Amino acid sequence: MGILLIITYTTLLLMLCFWINKKYVTVLPNYTLPLLFLVKIAYALFFLYVYTYHYGGGELTADAGVFFKESVTLHNVFYASPYDFFQFIFGLNDSPELINKYLESTMHWNGGERYLPNDSRHVIRINALLLFISQGEVVIHFMIFSFASFIGGFDLFQWLKKKSNIPPLVLLSMLTLAPSLAFWGSSIIKEPLMVLGLSLLIRGLFDEISITRKTWRILIGSALTIAFKPYVFICIVIALVYFFVFSKLFKKQWLALITYALFGITVLVGSGYADKAAYVIANQQEDFINLRDGGLYLHGDEEHYYYIYYANRSHFSIENGQATLLKPVGAYYLKKNENHERFPIQLKEVGTSYPVHLTLKESGSKVNVTLIKDDFWQMLKNIPEAIYNSFMQPIPNKKSSWLQYPAFLENLLYLFLGLLTFFIFPKTLPLKEKRLIITLALFASFIAMIVGWTTPVSGAIVRYIIPAHVAILVIFSLKLDYSKLKKKWFKA
């Protein structure tokens, strides 16, 4: 029955691609979109393989596995109480009592207070609803999410084919099958629906189409982007301030950029939000460093933990939530809410038991980052490091997994395309499109800053930088003069 369902949904999605191709892409054969989507399905199956067999030992693991399991837990609420199920689906009741009744075992749904809305819940909601038609076949979820991001790339193509002289097949393939974008956009986590939302939003903002077609794209794109990656929406709104205001103040855009930057820093410092922003970013950074380094967190008292390095966990016997000291070990005494206010101590009382707060494995793809420590000016100093890490990691080393090499080669490809686009075969653009490109470059830079500031793990950087990749591909599409390239490199 499961195989029949998978075949049925695959056929329906391919037929939909065929219909869209026939109706909206007359410049390409009718089989183009179906064939490209088959490649996208291959990405989805590869993602499923990597997180089931390479990392999971036969079971879907990491965020994809957790999201799917928690969606099953939420889905089962329907059979206990449809009323409570739809309260969860529509966010009508987030009381701790209701959550503890049905979803106490969850990690992403029951994740506690956050600075931004809990976007993980939306992924769980979508997967829980899809379970009504998938009957638990996770491959169907992968295909539907993959189709969402595929349509996002297609919608950008519908705009950019009017602006770019890159051949339509190359342009469409680039926007839908760029390696990291296609890989993470073929998962069952946040990225596919975020890519769809961001793509709709970008086209709605910048394409010269009717007000109706603009409006629904902006509304749906904004809703999806806020729902699945709120900080991405914040970054594009801040970049749009440049496009709609500062880029119009000066004909020379470098003057507009300087004015924009100085204005932004002045507003942040003058309003007091600079310190708040540094505090939020620093806390995210410190939390992720804890995940990167792994280790053992033991309850010390009401306000403090004992932290033991991952390599020293063997100094304890851990059983039933208690860690019993077997031999003396160096540790750190740290405040629960200030992860890097650490004081070195020695735990010497062999036989003493401590309640375990958290046990984390050490990450295999560490990236060194400079601590911000709630300092706004240090955060600004870290911008070059953050952007470098975001666009160059992972840099392979002797300990690197084979999965890091394709991502590294892709980064080199982007650098090469950037060289072609801006220095060898640039297209001369009108002022409005120059402003648009700078706006998208600002958006990509803001994403890179946030990712680089907060993410000390290269495997996570590759995933979180995806919104910037969408903007960069649009920039390449607009700025690269393919006719010059073809004349120079492909002449008969």
Keywords, separated by commas or semicolons:
21 helices; 492 residues
3D structure, described in words:
The protein is α+β, with helices and mostly antiparallel strands and 492 residues long. Helix content is 64%, strand content 9%. The protein has 21 helices and 7 strands. A 7-stranded antiparallel beta sheet has the order 3-4-7-1-2-5-6, with helices on one face. β3 (316-319) and β4 form a beta hairpin. The longest helix has 24 residues, at 431-454. 38% of the residues are buried.
Average pLDDT, rounded to a whole number, is 87
Helix count from the secondary structure assignment: 21
Order of strands, main sheet, comes to 3-4-7-1-2-5-6
User: Could you spell the SSE succession in H and E letters?
Assistant: HHHHHHHHHHHHHHEEEEEEEHHHHHHH
Terminal Cα span: 55 Å
Total count of strands: 7
Q: Tell me the radius of gyration.
A: 24 Å
* Share of residues in strands: 5-15%
Structural class designation: alpha+beta
Instruction: Assign an overall shape.
Output: globular
Kindly state the percentage of residues in helix: 55-70%
Sheet having the most strands: 7 strands, antiparallel
Low-confidence stretches: none
